[in-house]
Amino acid sequence: MKILVINGPNLNMLGIREPDIYGKQDFASLEKYIRDCASELSLSVSLFQSNHEGEIVDVIQSAYGVYDGIVINPAAYTHTSVAILDALKAVGIPTVEVHLSDISTREAFRQHSYVSLVAKKTICGLGFEGYRKALEFFA
Ligand code: DQA
Question: Which stretches in the chain have pLDDT values below 70?
Answer without folding.
Answer: none
